[in-house]
Amino acid sequence: MVDSSAAIFIVTDLIVCGLGPAGRALAHRARAHGISVLAIDPHPDRHWTATYAAWADELPPWIAPRTLAAQLPRPVAWGTRRFEIDRRYVVFDNAALRDSLDLDGVRVVAGTVAEIRRADGGPATVRLESGETYTARRVVDARGVRRAPELAEQTAFGVMVPRQRWDEPLFMDWRPDNGAGPAEPRSFLYAIPLNDDTVLLEETCLAGRPALDLAVLRDRLHTRLRGRGIELDGTEPTERVRFPVEGGRPGDEHFGAAGGLLHPATGYSVATALAEADAVATGASIWPWQARAVHALRNTGLRALLTLSPTEIPLFFDGFFTLSPERQRAYLSDRRNLFAIAATMRDLFTTVPAPVRVKLVTAPARGWRG
How far apart are CA 244 and CA 53, in angstroms? Predict the structure, then answer.
């Protein structure tokens, strides 16, 4: 039940600010541990419209199978050649995922957070734009990362078509058949089933500062699909994506993308938030020094990716998908194994061509905003 009344002062164990997938998972798991929760969101009943996907081995055991709309045993990736990824990939049913993260026993307030105040050794206070004030022993900010010109973003434009019109699931396809010139920033095709009936075909700019405009991606997608025998009539449902792939504040007071859990090289964060929700709910820290070091290395990877030329990007991913499944998984999913991440980056360095190696070496010296 949503409470939009002018409650003035509530003391509870935990206030969660934001009810996207990360915030809702945190509130849900906190209740599962018997923790009293107040959740605040401007539109707590809003449906999730983005496509959420994950590697199956990232998911915690409490995730119900009914929340998965599609499963791909071996998705395909293309750099300059074809790779099969030996790792099961899953796509969420957003409505089922949201319903599974029920908020029974959670007090939900519809409102916009204006300020969060934390006192050493004392309760934390949340003030809403409407003036209401709430207090709790802990406050966790799960409101995501706001867009800003200095932040690299991921953008994508997709269409949804009947599943029988597309055969092969594609995690990432960098082949240059989308009409872009050889010197223009690259984008890739993401083609995955959303359920038994529908497939999403999406042209994606993995990361850019600035990222490619949605109109550019739309035109590239149409060109690519025409070349592969798929004509669109303009009535297809569409998906538009734009969000920062950097930002967030690693630490115990933020969660989800707001807490640095978004992977800067992929834009994925939902599975990580689901997996870490129990620890954060019970007050455990998910940011030991190893996790902070891994986070820094991944940000270095983003800097390197942003420096690659259009011709070097497919070669980079050729190198990455040549790595063993264990090395790929370490970089994409392991937040704490610093040794495995470092070994993956070392192996990738020895695999890619010399010009790409130079970029990988010099990117850290360019600075975070370089």
Answer: 17
